[in-house]
Sequence to fold (159 residues):
Amino acid sequence: MSGEESSRTGEDSAAAGGGGGPRNAFGYDYLSNESHEHSGNRKAPIFNGDASLFEWWKERLYSNITAIDHELWDLVELGVTFENLNEHGRLSMENRKLLTPANLKTYTKHHRVKDIVVGAIRHEDYVRIEDKSSAKSIFDSMCATYDGNEKVQEAKASL
Fold:
């Protein structure tokens, strides 16, 4: 929201009986985004399929996830090793009830980071990925597809 739009919003509010002039002259959207960002809930950037931006996307994703909880990034790098996970990384209710409190916490974090990673890729990339059981398998598949592709594309273009 630009400063001009913010100022108009405040003037409109004052004209409508909101009193006291432009109340949001510097833009509440900025404040909302800033406080949202510092709470660790900022949405991860969505990768658009441009291989030249893949390194930037990986750095943004890493920063976003570690700002929430560094243990979440560990799950991206190391994965999870629960028995009886299905192809989507889920346990049945019966198997989930058998988890220790520590393993249940890890299982919950596994799904939290998987949700972040899935939300940061395009649907067409998601459907192409064969192993969707963990954030690690999804991230590794993205890396296998896009890491270094910019260099390969440049080499082909120079031929």
Observations:
- Residues 51-157 form one domain.
